[in-house]
Structures are given as C-alpha cells and as structure tokens.
Amino acid sequence: MKYTLAVATALLLATPALAQDDDIWDDDPYAAQDETVLAIDRFMGALLDLPIGRLARAMPDVEIEGDIRESDTLRDVMVRDNPGAEEELRGKARMATALVGTMLSEVEAMLPALESWAENLSRSVSD
C-alpha cells in the first residue's frame, strides 16, 4: 500500500509534465481523471523500461535474488517470474487514480457541511 500511495503521489505530481494535447478531452466531464490515468500509464511504461541489470551487478556486497541479466530492464525482471506483473502493476495504478478521483469528489460534495461544522465549532469555542 505504501508503494502504491508513493507511486500515485509521484505520478500525480508528474502529470503536468507528462500531459499532452488536451483537445480530445474538452467535452468529457471525467477528463482530468482520464488524463491522469493516461499519464500514469505512460509513466509506468517509462519506469518499466528503466535499465537495472548493470545497476544490480554494480551493487557491492548485495546478494540479488533471482536472475538479473546485464541488459535487463525493470519490466524484464518483473515479468520473468510473473508474466502478469506488468498488467497487475498498471491495474493498481489505474485503481489508485480512480480511488483518489472518487475521494476528491466525495470531499468536494462534503465541503458545505464541513464549512458549516467548522463555523459551529468556532462559535462554540469562542462562547
């Protein structure tokens, strides 16, 4: 969960840098979430293409579990033991994006009630 949250946060922060032409989303009420999901998917693809083989071999006094070859990317290592790993990872990123979008919508809907509660709390404390 920590990993998913960290990835989701990093990806949400990276979204503007990864965004492309917005015209296709102009009349879509869910455009922001769709763009975020697409940006996360592009980011995940780039992350999975990270070459890690040489890095793994260069680590002194670290025993590496599994077969990591010099030319391996993160994707190569992940799917070698679990062929469905990439789809699982991308699915979790999409799920996290949808969850954040839903949570933000719910918080937005609650704002009037929260503001009223805060005003009542403020009055009761100051009385």
Short note summarizing the structure:
The protein has helices at residues 2-18, 31-48, 53-58, 74-81, 85-126. The protein has 127 residues and is mainly α.
Largest sheet data: none
β-strand number: 0
Distance between the termini: 43 Å
Listing every helix as H and every strand as E from the N terminus to the C terminus, the arrangement reads HHHHH
Helix content bin:
over 70%
Mean pLDDT: 76
Protein structure class = mainly alpha
Beta-strand percentage range: under 5%
**Rg from Cα:** 21 Å
The number of helical runs is 5
Shape summary = elongated
Number of domains: 1
| Poorly predicted runs | none
Ordered list of secondary-structure elements with their pairings:
Elements: H1 2-18, H2 31-48, H3 53-58, H4 74-81, H5 85-126
Give an overview of the whole structure.
The structure is a single chain. The protein has helices at residues 2-18, 31-48, 53-58, 74-81, 85-126. With 127 residues, the chain is mostly helical. It has one domain (2-126). Helix 1 (2-18) crosses helix 2 (31-48) and helix 1 packs across helix 5.
